[in-house]
Design goal:
6-stranded mixed sheet; 4-stranded antiparallel sheet; 33% helix; elongated
């Protein structure tokens, strides 16, 4: 293990450069060519460093990529998962896009989650170059996680689940924002809602109009009354409507983003939301709606806690401290690995914060720390771990 840790430290400059290069390849989720540029760059890097790669083509989303070491090794594989897309349209960040200041890396996706990709690759190459050959290790990358696989659809979800199949453990490389091991995450359901009223002059014909915005406001307030931060939350995060200040608005469109902890809560959310959307607060209005995205929750299963316990045992052994198991309200693709019954944890990338903002950062010192921990987990996970009779 000492030689692996020394290898990580010796190659840190090269992997910092890798992080800079993929951060500077801005990869806004709907921009398939931009996301594919990141995947192509990583595939070339992986092949040049001795890994095997497989690209999965998607018509609308950025392509998927699997990077593998030790294919066919005797022990059950360990899987790392992640995504190559970010939430930032090109040009959002001022130049230089990537910078290092006061011990932090800054840039679009540096924590969420290109830093996690680099952590995984750094750990994998350290293991391979130091002669570890007992387990296959797979890095499974998707191109539209930030839009809940709404572009790749079921094909994208299948790609993740087929890639992780047979693994003893799944570690999602999202950034570590709260210094704990994530064993549970909320699921989400996203609605797009169209409200139709009747346009009229807001002065001389006001009584002839029916305000679509007012109808939408009634619906939003009624839906959000049920929000409970500890359980289910309902949020209208985007709304547009109307044509002119002096016109009763004929149309209004808004988006609802609802989050929940347990799969059984999904039907409760749909019943609450759709009952109110079907209700007519202002006579003469009409509302249509559709679900435009959803992701199941990563439920905090005993298997996930068992994996967190193993990681903590290994972390303490090598002086990396204790990582308290916890839950986060944000979603991730760890939901798709956990729902297969594979022991899964999330937030195994670099420590950082301010994600989805112009000040997104990752702590530079956490890059080698997490790479060493991931390498140690692969090496020291018990041979029987992941078997149902062993959990």
């Amino acid at each position: 293990m000492k030689s692996i840790f020394e290898w990580v430290d010796a190659r840190l400059e090269e992997y910092t450069e890798l992080l800079q290069n993929i951060v500077c390849l801005e990869s806004y989720t709907p921009d398939k060519p931009a996301v594919d540029a990141v995947g192509d760059y990583l595939a070339r890097f992986a092949v040049a460093h001795g890994f095997q790669t497989r690209i999965q083509h998607f018509p609308k989303a950025g392509n998927g990529l699997i990077i593998t070491m030790n294919p066919g090794a005797p022990l059950p594989p360990v899987g790392f998962t992640g995504h190559m897309d970010t939430v930032f349209p090109p040009g959002t960040f001022p130049k230089p896009v990537f910078r290092i200041e006061n011990g932090n890396f800054y840039g679009p996706g540096v924590t969420d989650m290109k830093g996690g990709i680099v952590v995984a690759l750094l750990a994998m190459q350290a293991l391979m170059d130091c002669g570890y050959a007992d387990r296959e290790v797979r890095l499974i990358l998707i191109g539209d996680e930030e839009m809940s696989e709404s572009l790749s659809g079921q094909e994208g979800i299948d790609f993740i689940q087929q890639g992780i199949a047979g693994c003893a453990a799944a570690l999602t490389m999202e950034g570590n924002l709260e210094e704990h091991i994530t064993v549970g995450r909320k699921g989400s359901i996203r609605y797009r809602v169209h409200v139709h009223g009747r346009a009229a002059h807001a002065g001389i014909c006001y009584a002839d109009g029916i305000s679509a915005i007012k109808e939408a406001a009634h619906k939003i307030l009624e839906i959000e009354k049920k929000s409970d931060p500890a359980q289910i939350t309902y949020n209208c995060g985007l709304i547009t409507g109307g044509t002119a200040p002096n016109t009763v608005p004929e149309c209004c469109e808004f988006t609802l983003y609802n989050r929940y902890w347990q799969l059984e809560q999904r039907d409760r959310i749909r019943n609450h939301v759709e009952t109110i959307l079907d209700r007519e607060f202002l006579p003469g209005t009409h509302t249509t709606y559709e679900i435009i995205g959803q992701r199941p929750p990563m439920e905090d299963t005993p298997a996930n806690y068992a994996l967190a316990e193993e990681i903590n045992r290994i972390s303490e052994k090598y002086g990396f401290g204790t990582w308290k198991p916890g839950k986060q309200a944000g979603g991730s693709d760890a939901a798709y690995t956990s729902m297969l019954g594979i022991p899964s944890v999330c937030s195994m990338g670099p420590r950082g914060g301010r994600v989805h903002s112009l000040e997104e950062y990752a702590q530079a010192a956490s890059l080698p720390l997490m790479a060493k921990l991931m390498a140690a987990v692969v090496m020291e996970l018990p041979e029987t771990f992941g078997r149902k009779d062993a959990l």
